[in-house]
Design a protein that fits this description.
Layout lengths: L1 E6 L10 H18 L3 E4 L14 H10 L5 E4 L9 H14 L4 E5 L5 H7 L6 H17 L3 E4 L4 E5 L13 E4 L4 H10 L2 E4 L6 H17 L8 E9 L3 H22 L26 H6 L4 E3 L1 H15 L4 E5 L7 H15 L10 H4 L1
Helix pairs in contact: 1-11, 2-3, 3-5, 6-7, 10-11
Protein name: Alkanesulfonate monooxygenase SsuD/methylene tetrahydromethanopterin reductase-like flavin-dependent oxidoreductase (Luciferase family)
Organism: Krasilnikovia cinnamomea
GO molecular function, one term: oxidoreductase activity, acting on paired donors, with incorporation or reduction of molecular oxygen
Length: about 350
Amino acid sequence: MRLGIVFFPTVGPQDRPAQQYFSEALQLVDLAEELGFHHVKMVEHYFFPYGGYSPDPVTFLAAAAGRTRRVRLGTSATIPAFVHPVKLAGKLAMLDNISNGRVDAAFGRAFLPDEFKAFGIPMDESRARFTESVRAVQLLWTTEDAVFEGTFHKFGPVTLLPRPVQQPHPPIFVTSARSLDSVREAAEVGHHLQTVPNAMTVEELSERVELFRSSWRASGHPGTGQIHLTYPCVVAADPAEARRKAKYDEERNTAAISAAVSAWRTTSSTAYPGYEKLADIGKRATFEEKLADNKLLVGSPDEVRGQLGDIAQRYGDDLTLSLGIHSGHLDVEDAATTLRLLAEQVLPKLDNDPFAAEERR
């Protein structure tokens, strides 16, 4: 099992200035590199405290690339529907060169009505746009004199510069929170999977993990494919302190997403069946219920090590976990403490040398 960190700010100017948040996040990037964590990721969202400080994850990852040499750099995830595929392919290829081949490219469909409205993109087109754009990006990465004829984009013949360092292209991840079809289709075409346990039941996550693995095998791809799971994480020497801080952070995160999804009260889309229920997300499982289901990694080093063991037993020990350690509501030193305790007291006892992460990849 490999561990990395993901930045998902859920703060706005009234909580913490953006320049302070990014300064703190880059401090944690330095620490993650020093301690041997596998990756650093950044989300893409707009307008709301729910991720709105990160409208362009590639900008942040470029800054991270300039101060690191080993840690992998992942989008979590960038939204193809909101940018031309030529532009997106070029940005990610440039980052792959700046980082000397350390990019993991995760793509998502997006799900917030206000974001689609601002970009003038009909939500009903989101699946078709996603599929077409990812295919166009992959073509640009792998083909000289590329010609593309799609429903939404047409170009060529063009040869993208710079070419990606990683060949045939950076690893492609599909981010899926709900759709079984997205999970199956990702595996069938050889893309990896990124998902969020907090967005579903334990049984639903098990179903998606098994569906991805069985579809990957059935499609004849080598290996098993990568599965990245995202978990909020707070570790402290005193377990009561960890739970107190994590509960506050989770409550603020829930408030942020509740505000961001409020448009679903008056929105429906054929591409997002049942998403109207998201408007009531704040009324769902409590902090204690999420913790009991291992949807949050919270507690002392021993307790979190036990949680990781349970996750490995349920879903497999070949997972990669992305830990949300700094949403902006807790002090940056709390996040640094989490990283240090994981590196010093959790990973070694999992028989997992963090500095060997890249060799195991």
